[in-house]
Amino acid sequence: MHKLAKASDIVFFLLPVIMALVFTTLILILSDASPLAAYGHILAGAFENANKWADVATAWVPLVLCSAGLLATFTAGQWNIGVEGQIILGAVGATWVARNASLGSGGAPSAPLIALLLLAGMVGGALWGALAGALKTFGQVHEIFAGMGLNFVAAGLTNYLIFVPWRPPDGATMSGTDPFPIAATLPRLGTLRVTPLSVILAVVAIAGVFVALRGTLWGLKLKAIGKSAHAAFLMGVSTDRNILLSFAVCGALAGLAGAIQASGVYRRLIPQISGGYGNLALLVVLLSRIQAPWVPLIAFFFAAVGVGSPRLELRLGLDSSLGGVLETVVVLFVLLSQGARQRFEETRTVRNE
């Protein structure tokens, strides 16, 4: 019986990946493109040199940070769709500090200013996340609608700030605000785009969430709420407070991602500062089955496909959105596989009884 369970685990793990590759291969064949050439260009586009590796790491950081936060809300049974807005508010908070703080050391990054900047990003994201949680717990607004609405508000606020009060002296453009002073930028690894501090923060965040959800009383409470909020309440768990806290934690980590995007990647506030990482993180967490150890690996896959896909258009004349097709198809088949696995396990349990 144990061997059968182990074999089924392997089958249900590999099957969706194989099916996604088969589906994408059929699309490539119908487009008169070589599947091997297409996959080869995606890999080459992501890993052909140090700059590409750095770009993958740069995309990996916000995915891991947002996914780490989403693990908390998903564990509590909350669909936090507002991560995009929480990233944006984190970037706004970081930009405010970069524009107004007097700390710094002229032509070099300032550690106190960077710490204040990252903290402001976390506070901005946490407040925006807590607002979504408050709308759910006190306003009876479903978290999906609350999150989506706040995403639009955050995007509108960013555009207003860029085009009105934070407008550059030579006129506002979609390029964003004036560049941050050097003192307010995260130091990069030589000439590469990646910032080592951001990678360290992402690793610490996912490790911290893993420990919190697996080995603390708070994590146990979130799991109880996720299973049945009413039953958890009857057992004495403060459901509203813990749901609010899960949203605030998620917002803080998403806000940290936004602060890193603003100070480390773009070094300014731009209209599309979130880069879609909040929505992509939802897929990462779904694929991980809310298991923190899988998040870094799955996020790495998404980051590599995202960085490597534009090469398809340059070399094969294919639309770079094919990479997005591959990502979403993998998610679709994983969800189908999870449903099939649940049905398989239920059937096996009934037969054993």
Characterize the largest beta sheet: strand count, sense, and whether it forms a barrel. none
Oligomer: single chain
Query: Would you tell me the overall average pLDDT?
Result: 88
Counting DSSP E segments of at least 2 residues, the number of strands comes to 0
Order of helices and strands: HHHHHHHHHHHHHH
DSSP strand (E) fraction? under 5%
The N- to C-terminal Cα distance equals: 14 Å
- Helix content estimate: over 70%
User: What is the helix tally?
Assistant: 14
Outline: globular
Describe the protein.
α3 crosses α8. By secondary structure, this protein is an all-alpha fold. It has a domain of 216 residues. The chain is globular. The longest helix has 31 residues. 45% of the residues are buried. It starts with a helix and ends with a helix.
List the helices and strands and how they pair.
Layout: H1 2-30, H2 35-47, H3 50-75, H4 83-100, H5 111-137, H6 143-163, H7 196-215, H8 217-227, H9 229-234, H10 239-266, H11 277-288, H12 295-308, H13 310-315, H14 322-352
At a glance:
With 353 residues, the chain is mainly alpha-helical.
Keywords for this entry:
353 residues; mainly alpha; 14 helices; 74% helix
